[in-house]
Write a sequence for this structure.
């Protein structure tokens, strides 16, 4: 594959979606062909699964069902969007990917990471992001920001302790894989975060011969 795969990830209210749009424009200015997508979602089937996962009416969904739905959406996303784009030379920007499964279903809900790893290998093979920007901020700040967006979805209704576990898993994964992760302090004004994102991308492009 000749394209590159970049993921933005992090907890609730971290500003990922806003920064993704900036990253898309930045990479296009650098001469890259770019597509932006998201998980769960990115395809018609994926968006339908996303609606199920976020619907608070399914608050008692079994953890196994939830995790399998996440990976079903991911399998379709990879087959229909991500892999073809990478093969065609596009740079793919994705709002969340498998790290989120380890954080939310693993850390938040308590699913063993070994179970997630089996599904990861089955669905993805050896495909992993080339770069992951982890937008990190205190849980209380993130939830307060998320609350301004309107009615809470099924995940946003979880307790703060759930999101503390999510954040801890993200942090541990970043510690274990420093070659892939860049941690961005999202507990700052938008412009300050954007400057750091630009620096991260510029440095990474230079290092990888972008």
């Amino acid at each position: 594959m000749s394209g590159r795969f970049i993921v933005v990830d992090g907890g609730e209210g971290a500003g990922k979606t806003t920064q993704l749009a900036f990253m898309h424009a930045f990479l296009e200015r650098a001469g890259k062909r770019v597509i932006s997508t998201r998980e769960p979602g990115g395809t018609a089937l994926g968006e339908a699964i996303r609606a199920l996962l976020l619907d608070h009416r399914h608050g008692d969904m079994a953890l196994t069902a939830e995790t399998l739905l996440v990976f079903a959406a991911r399998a379709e996303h990879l087959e229909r969007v991500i892999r073809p784009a990478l093969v065609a030379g596009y740079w793919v920007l994705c709002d969340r990917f498998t790290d989120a499964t380890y954080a939310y279903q693993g850390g938040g809900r308590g699913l063993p990471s070994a179970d997630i790893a089996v599904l990861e290998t089955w669905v993805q093979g050896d495909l992993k992001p080339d770069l992951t920007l982890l937008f990190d901020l205190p849980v209380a700040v993130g939830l307060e920001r998320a609350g301004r967006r309107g009615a809470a979805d099924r995940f946003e209704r979880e307790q703060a302790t759930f999101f503390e576990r999510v954040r801890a898993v993200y942090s541990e994964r970043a510690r274990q894989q420093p070659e892939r992760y860049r941690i961005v302090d999202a507990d700052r004004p938008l412009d300050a975060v954007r400057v750091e994102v630009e620096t991260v991308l510029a440095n990474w492009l230079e290092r990888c011969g972008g």
Notes: The first strand starts at residue 4 and ends at 10. Residues 60 and 154 are 10 Å apart (CA to CA). The chain has a mean pLDDT of 92.
